[in-house]
Amino acid sequence: MNGGGREGDRRDDEVRGARRIPGPRGAVDDLDLETVERPVLPPPGGSTPDEAVPEQGAPEGDGDVRDAVPEAGAADEPDAVDPDAVDEPYAVDEPDAVDEPEPAMASATSATPATSATSAATPVLSHQVLKALLGAWALSACSAEETAAVEDHLTVCAPCADEALRLRDAVGLLHTDGSLDLDPTLRTRVMDGCLGRRPARIPVPDWATPYDAETARLDALLRDIGDSEWHAPVRLQWFEDERPATRRTTVAGVIGHLMAVDGLVSAALGLDDPLGRVEVPLSPARRTETYWAATRPPATRAVREPWRDLTHELIRTASLAGRNVAERSVSYGDFALPLQDALLDRAFECWVHGTDIAEAVDYPYKPPSAAHLHRMIDLAARLLPAALAGRRSAGLAGPAKELVAPGEPGRSVHLEVEGHGGGDWYIPLDSPAAVGSPRRAVAQVALDGVEFCQLVAGHISPVEAAAGQEGDREAIRDVLFASASLSRL
């Protein structure tokens, strides 16, 4: 062909200007295109300006197009080529000027419309548009043309391919075979699990917190001991008729004793008596004897659960009963206490008998907190004037020396409690209605906090209790023996 290579250049420009779909590389891609600046593709539907496509010369050497297609008659007449016809695209007038390359040229020329048709079927979209279509592609919501364009783009763009993979995985999570509805029993199971680990708390009044704390401490001790230790012997002690008294029982018997006396508080709150509906006395000692006589054979660790349930019920009822419930009277037979003092008395007894059980099973058991121990000592100090009056009426204490009107200061003993939960109290001597006064103090006695509580519980004798004494010896003796008389079974 005498076209001077222009036909080959024209076909290369058409190939470079056409919208290409990434696919198997053809012979035309064998060139090193990485070293050639890539042209900017026009928007869909636009034409490519001439200056947008860089010029590309034909390969040097033997690869010239003009050398690949020999002209007709060139073998016979090597000088027959017209120099002026080199620049013309078609210099040969005769149709048979090109013998065999014509079909090849025609084939190459006829392939150009097919390539254009394929490019028109797949839309050319920008990277931003293709990236925005990834979500719809992952959901299979794209058209066929958009799907082909996205998938072609994924073969050359690694970031978009990674994003498409993540989106496809996310779509897979949306298609689950199971129901998304919650199990109707889920809430019940969660609440049961939470309450099993930590029961729901009710705002407990401040005056009921010592009882709540001491019952919880004793219950923790009972949880730790073994089955055989529930039958360990325990010696209960108290002070009666001017001398110490004792009673032997078991760990289970002590818990039964606490439950029997707690029944006095439950009766005041309108709850069921733990001893049943039979007629039972109000005295704590007689209630205990009634319970022990009814439990044959002796109680086992099975007594722990009803006792703990009763303590929970007492605390719950006292907490929800209202503001005036603290003053409700609880009868002990020979005397009565307000509910707030009765629960403090029950807290004191839980601690004392918890110590008895701990000593029997060799278990460490600490005194109550300082705040709770101070309240217990204060209760005993407030009960001492009435105890002194009762002993004086029975001829067990010295006569009154200076009677005063109710509410007036009278002769007093300064009770100084040192250490854990300690403080200062002034005990009136001559009348339970009198008021203790530092100015009318005739004696002073000093004791440790825990030691004073052991005296009130009847665990030590009055003679051995006082660490320091000063003043009227008779007044001191009366106060110490009155403190011991507060103890009971």
Task: Describe the model.
The protein has 489 residues and is an alpha+beta fold. The chain has 17 helices and eight strands. It has helices at 6-17, 65-68, 101-121, 127-132, 134-138, 144-154, 158-174, 186-197, 209-224, 251-268, 284-294, 304-320, 339-361, 370-393, 449-456, 462-465, 473-485; strands spanning 233-240, 243-250, 329-331, 336-338, 409-418, 423-428, 435-448, 468-471. The strands form three sheets. The chain has a four-stranded mixed β-sheet with strand order 6-5-7-8. A hairpin with a 4-residue loop joins strand 3 (329-331) and strand 4 (336-338). Helix 9 runs parallel beside helix 13 (339-361) and helix 10 (251-268) runs antiparallel to helix 13. Residues 1-15, 25-31 and 47-120 have low confidence and may be disordered.
What pattern of helices and strands is seen along the backbone? HHHHHHHHHEEHHHEEHHEEEHHEH
User: What percent of residues are in strands?
Assistant: 5-15%
What strand line-up does the widest sheet have? Answer: 6-5-7-8
Number of helices: 17
Sheet with the most strands, sense and barrel status: 4 strands, mixed
Determine the mean pLDDT. 79
Distance between the termini: 132 Å
Structural class: alpha+beta
Percent range for helical residues? 40-55%
Radius of gyration from the alpha-carbon trace, in angstroms: 54 Å
Uncertain segments:
1-15, 25-31, 47-120
What's the number of extended β-strand segments?
8
**Shape call:** elongated
